[in-house]
Amino acid sequence: MSDSHQQPAHSPGTGEGPDPTSASSLLLCGARLADGRTVDVRLGGGRIEAVGTAGSLTAHGARVDLNGFLLLPAPAEPHAHSDTALTAFSAEGPVSYAVEEVQRRATEAALLQLGHGATALRSHVRIDEVSGLDPLEAVLQTRRSLRGLTELAVVAVPRLLTGVAGADGLAMLRDAVKMGASVVGGCPDLDADPAGYAEAVLELAAEHGCAVDLHTDGTDPARLARLAAMSGGLRPGVAIGPCGGLARLPRDTAARAADQLASAGVAVTCLPQGGCGMTDRQGAAPVRLLRASGVRLAAGSGALRDVSNPVGRGDPLEAAYLLASQAGMRPEDAYAAVSAVARETMGLPEVRVEAGFPAELLAVRGERIAGVLSLAYSRIVIHRGRVVARTSAVREYCDSAAAVALGLPRQGRPDPSRGETG
User: Fold this and answer.
1) pTM as predicted
2) Tens digit of pLDDT for each residue in 388-410?
3) Measuring CA to CA, how many Å separate 174 from each of 88, 208, 242, 277?
4) Euclidean distance between the first and the last CA atom of the chain, given in angstroms as a whole number
5) How far apart are CA 305 and CA 303, in angstroms?
6) CB contact set of 258 (below 8 Å; sequence gap of 6+)
7) Beta-carbon contacts of residue 238 (< 8 Å; ≥ 6 apart)
8) What are residue 158's DSSP bridge partners?
């Protein structure tokens, strides 16, 4: 029997007031690192102040015992859909896209993903002639209300951008950037002029200094080549995904396309847990081929319990698990796809468990990354140097004497008689 409980360690603030991040220090005691060391880690001012051997650091504030936990750089979620999240089983008729309803869903979704460990999210939000900019405003309000708990970047996703019909979409996209969308995106494949759509997005991004994140299935190599040519050198960067169609192309053709993307510095965000509503077909991107070409490959969760994936979990560790179990990636590389590479793709600072780096951390009960990806039950999430979410899991058996006698590892409540804490 198992019982898990997940909640934010602090309630979210409201408005745009001072950052609620605590200025006091926090000492993480007895954490195991991926390289096998057991260390103490002191945090302060939102950064890692010091890393030393277990028992060597002095606490200037609160302490968290991480005995039995693996301490890792926190994951980031590079491909969320906050406006449509949690809409798969709406029992009250058509899904509402009123500001208050979208904000409620987006907040719940962000907290779910925070509980999994993602301290930063990039959310694609549709803007169109039906809902206008209301869903975008709702997710921007969510971003403000969760300040200090998680970082939420918003991608404005217009439906059309070319021709007479696209003029309104282009104007709406400009308004979205003025409102606070820091990334521009969309799905060129759905426009009558895919190249013109991509060009419009890239031009607007260059004008405003925005990042670009586009949806594409990647089935047209000529279109990918043109996108790569237009994207070269654009800062702060271009990402595309989920690119499942690349796997359906002849290998030589797909390899050439991957080489062109790599040369242009275009990142690919794959969705191992399933697709999202912005692309017509499901299917996994050719992970090995992309990595062999040098493409920066991040992994996202995609749909979170919407019509595209009614059982989507929004768990980055599950995405990494699938990369390791189905795409043949080393567990360490799979975890990097949802942490270091995801953060780089999102333009976030690098995180290492070393002094001076941002205190964006995830502690998971376990000893090695492979084990963490297999059984990631209990988790402690740290954002800007403070604990912002905990998930505790207890597994109990009616008679566990045999397991105790053999000294087998277990997932459960600490037993003080055996020297266990936390």
Assistant:
1) 0.89
2) 999 998 877 766 677 677 776 66
3) 31, 9, 25, 23
4) 20
5) 6
6) 246, 286, 289, 290, 292, 293, 295
7) 202, 211, 212, 213, 214, 227, 231, 264, 265, 266, 267
8) 127
